Amino acid sequence: MRLVRSAVPARLRVAGGLGTLAAAALVLGWYSTGPLQAGWAARSGTPARLVRSPSASSTARAVALRSALPQTFNDTLDARLARSDDGVGDVGVAISGNVRGASVEGVLGLTLWGAATQDGGVSMTTSRVTFSPVGVRPYSGTVTALSGDQLVAELTNASGQSLRLTIQLRIDSQTRTVTGSVHGEPA
């Protein structure tokens, strides 16, 4: 509405609009015959190290990372802890960190919800566990057993593979860090 009521003469407004359309058409034409074409980056002077396409060997390496986890593994956990409570006795504890070892590397996420216990722990009512090993489809599931600083989780991935993790935790509540061990085996 403002453009229609403008003090600028209609002829100039129309000319400006047509000029804008013409400029957009020129840019679109240049883009479709230039940057949109294969090999344009190399022809325009971009260094070869930035435009080379992945070689067959690097593609093969990426595909051949790993199709499954080892039958069993024992690795270490290095994680951080977050805790929140609702003020009426329920608490949530989240642990997230890296699993590292000779056989498996990945990211472990663990969340427990339930009633706070006298010793600062959780009487678990609900849980969620995720494990994303490098080069393998991620797993998710729940905690099936919790006793002190040890828990067992049953997980599956999108391919239907099952995994049981036995996790031993060492929690430093002052620094909110968690270390420990992770043992994996087929469920």
What can you tell me about this protein's structure?
The chain is of the alpha+beta class and 187 residues long. It folds into 2 domains: 10-53, no CATH class; 73-185. 21% of the residues lie in helices and 45% in strands. The chain has 4 helices and 8 strands; from the N terminus they run H-H-H-H-E-E-E-E-E-E-E-E. The chain has helices spanning 10-33, 40-43, 48-51, 56-63, and strands at 73-85, 90-100, 106-116, 122-133, 139-147, 150-157, 162-172, 177-185. The protein has an 8-stranded antiparallel beta barrel. Strand 6 (150-157) and strand 7 (162-172) form a beta hairpin. The chain is elongated. The relative contact order is 0.13.
Looking at this protein, list some descriptive labels.
single chain; 187 residues; alpha+beta; 2 domains
Q: What's the topology here?
A:
Elements (H helix, E strand, L loop, with lengths): L9 H24 L6 H4 L4 H4 L4 H8 L9 E13 L4 E11 L5 E11 L5 E12 L5 E9 L2 E8 L4 E11 L4 E9 L2
Antiparallel strand pairs: 1-2, 1-8, 2-3, 3-4, 4-5, 5-6, 6-7, 7-8
